[in-house]
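Board notes (copied after class):
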Amino acid sequence: MASADEKSFDDINVTPMVDLYLVLLLIFIIMTTAGVQGVKVNLPRAGKAAAADIGAPKLQAITVNTEGKIFLNTMPVTLAELEDKLSKHKAQHPEFPVVVRGDRQSQYQGIMDVLDVLGRLNITNIGLATQGPKK
């Protein structure tokens, strides 16, 4: 009779492979979210209310940074250029969502100027980007 030390192992330990798959999945998730284009701003915090899903392909992102500079989909624009580009986009796509992102340190007037442009163009599907509440 063979002792326990001489016993042959006929099964494969898959734990290291599962760990490798989880690490690769984590790297993939991080790289995918890092690839999202945009201008870095420090968003203000919001309450726990659920936000509507406006991830439509024709989404336009308007960002106001701390210096009051305005960006349309990462391209710097003036208010006149913003109005011109959005009116051209509205002519092609009458209903499209707009997300306004403002740094929490930015002047409120800059965001109001952007909202005024959106009001003149009669764009009503507007979202204001915020961070989730602290846990």
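Comment from the instructor: Helices lie at 15-34, 79-92, 108-120. The domain at 60-128 is CATH 3.30.420.270 (Nucleotidyltransferase; domain 5).
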